[in-house]
Amino acid sequence: MNSKDTLLQDEASRWVARMGRSDWGDAHEADLANWLAQNPRGQGELLMAQAAWISCDPETIALGQPPVTTPSWSRRRIMLAGSAAAMAASIFGLVFYNASVSGYATEVGEVRRVALADGSTAAINTDSRIAVNFDKGHRNVRLDRGEVWFQVKHDRARPFVVEAGPVRVRAVGTAFSVRRRGNGADIIVTEGVVAAWTDANANEPVSARAGTQLFMPDTPGRQRPVAIEASAASSLSWRSGQIELVARPLADAAAEFNRYNRRKIVIHDPTIANEEVDGIFRTDDPEGFATAVHDILGVPVRTSGDGEITLGRK
Amino acid sequence: MDPQESLLEIRRRRATWVALRVMPHEAQSRAWLRRARVQSEEADDLVQEAYCRLATIDEVDHIDRPGAYFFSIIRNLLVRRRREASVVSLESIAEIEAIPDPDTGPEMEVARRMDAERVRSLIAELPERCRRIVEMQKIEGYSQIEIARLLGVTESVVENNIYRGVQAVRKNWLKKQDDLSERLKLFGNDVEGRSR
């Protein structure tokens, strides 16, 4: 909570007290309207303060006494509530650092955060492997496969360079991710600026700033790659164990889940493959996703013995 | 809506509805945000924005399940914020429909039990004169002008002390929400155990 919020909170509290005045009238009302006009968030703050105050009235507390009921949890709620602890344990329990280890790998479905020796952080996405090599003058990370997001500690004397095949990405103090693709690397910059190039075009680096993404092909054609505004699809929510879908074709969305899970989602019906879906899901919850698709599109969902989840009729 | 109702009355009615039907569920939404790994500062922000929405919609009487409604606002704000675009999330609707009936569930009981207790100790901790004035309003039910007459002070003095009371309650609210959403996380565990 910053000081601006605290101020707003206090002013809202003052308005609540003032509204109890016996002579509250049009002039006060005008002053309040003025305050609200100047503080767009004042409406919410005023409502919260007044409601919190009213909730202390004895009659409000009495009205709120619980009716005698048995707790009811719907299946969906269980999905919502139950998973979080498991997620916390499985994903964030793995933070470790060992000075003698210079290679890190993740299994399918695993996301790992690693503190690097220089104070930088790497979040390693599913099914990825990196090798870290720091010395006095250099900080090099080789991305053999998969995707990693780096929060780079500022150190002008030691440039931070990620190698993904022939692609190189350099940062000074910045945050960005690199994903190794079959024919190049996807780069998303969340803070600062990075420069990217390939072995063959080392003297023609392309720069990308925060909020942009860049695809750097292994063998750049005549067209020079350019950074474009990061799309919603280039979300980095995997760092917190989530898949974010924004108007994503179903086939794409399924492929995204398949990155993280051994239980694969298979779409049987090609007519639904281009249907667009939205939502935030847990990376390890393909069933939850399939259920949502079932609810939205009304297509059958089947789970086969070998752990495949099929969507749609054959 | 009663055309004769003053803005003051409308505001009070809305706030009472929020106090009774929405605020008890705030912790649920916060617990969800916590599970979604939203940082607490952003969570505060989203909650504040959601209350803004509740303050500005015309009518609330048609809302059957205010807790679920509140959650849906927060969730949509989060989705929208994350992608900085405005598309309504279909998936969210399925999820919202399945939120437990707002007035049931073990966490609600805990929320209520904590309420009376907390208010009492909160008032007890206020400075002497402030405590007396807040008690006169909250427990004995006097209006601010009546309190002023009974204590032989100006109405502004009463107002100032009430302000300190509101401020304390408001500040405490955040802390309470944090404690509750922490507890709800434990409920989450519990539910997971049962569902296996």
What does this structure look like?
- The complex is a heterodimer of chains A (314) and B (196).
- Chain A has 314 residues and is of the alpha+beta class.
- Chain A is 28% helix and 31% strand.
- Chain A is built from 7 helices and 19 strands.
- In chain A, strand 18 (301-303) and strand 19 (309-311) form a beta hairpin.
- With 196 residues, chain B is mainly α.
- Helices cover 77% and strands 0% of the residues of chain B.
- Chain B has helices at residues 7-35, 40-56, 66-83, 90-97, 106-124, 128-138, 144-151, 155-195.
- In chain B, helix 1 runs parallel beside helix 8 and helix 5 (106-124) runs antiparallel to helix 8 (155-195).
- The chains are: A alpha+beta (314), B mainly alpha (196).
Q: How can the largest sheet of chain A be summarized?
A: 7 strands, mixed
What level of helicity do the residues of chain A show? 25-40%
Biggest sheet character of chain B: none
**Protein chains sharing the most extensive interface:** A-B, 80 and 89 residues
State the secondary-structure class of chain B. mainly alpha
CA gyration radius of chain A, whole angstroms:
26 Å
Q: CATH first level of the largest domain in chain A: which class? A: Mainly Beta
Distance between the termini of chain B: 48 Å
Number of domains of chain A: 3
Overall strand count of chain B: 0
The string of secondary-structure elements of chain A, in order, is HHHHHEEEEEEEEEEEEEEEHEEHEE
Give the CA-based shape of chain A.
Answer: extended
Q: Unreliable segments of chain B (pLDDT under 50, ≥5 consecutive)?
A: 85-98, 187-196
The quaternary organization reads as heterodimer
